[in-house]
Amino acid sequence: xxxxxxxxxxxxxxxxxxxxxxxxxxxxxxxxxxxxxxxxxxxxxxxxxxxxxxxxxxxxxxxxxxxxxxxxxxxxxxxxxxxxxxxxxxxxxxxxxxxxxxxxxxxxxxxxxxxxxxxxxxxxxxxxxxxxxxxxxxxxxxxxxxxxxxxxxxxxxxxxxxxxxxxxxxxxxxxxxxxxxxxxxxxxxxxxxxxxxxxxxxxxxxxxxxxxxxxxxxxxxxxxxxxxxxxxxxxxxxxxx
Length: 241
Fold this sequence. Notes:
Order of helices and strands: EEEHEEEEEEHEEHHHH
Radius of gyration: 20 Å
Number of helices: 6
Low-confidence stretches: none
Largest sheet: 3 strands, antiparallel
Helix content: 25-40%
């Protein structure tokens, strides 16, 4: 379990961060929340779909990095195999935690158990005066930027839901031999509904700049075949091991 605590210049003055692209911490998470700014670059590698919180009704955009719960096919080893990376992956080992549910102010927190942290080499967080270094300031700005983008994405998902553009989709995928995999609980943009929108509603999507992300999402669903191949190879290597 991570040991996430608020960053403090006295407690963490000696800490250094060794940035890397080891994302194995996500190896058990097959659906990764993403922001709309990620849709176009990620669509070349990952299916992008939407999942619904059954308690709140809120939709979340996710990049599918696996077909089976508990298996992220991209994060099983420290060698990231793709050319594109979700922007939120670069948050770690930092995170933002609200001071309270009713307060928008946040603490910048750090996972002190992270393997990226040491006291010997890497990027320092505080200078000799206890002030944030340029590195920490940049990391904090990234955290705030990603948080704002997630909020924007949440608003756009709600807009799609209000326009009844999201539809539940079930997928049946053929794997090796006779193995079949049924995927449920995923939502996608309803293409027929999109095509039959009145001109004023379609133009509203265009004026809001939403058409490129819609088409990126729809195009990305072709990457399901890529995931199926990766799953077949993963299953073979697991058997051989």
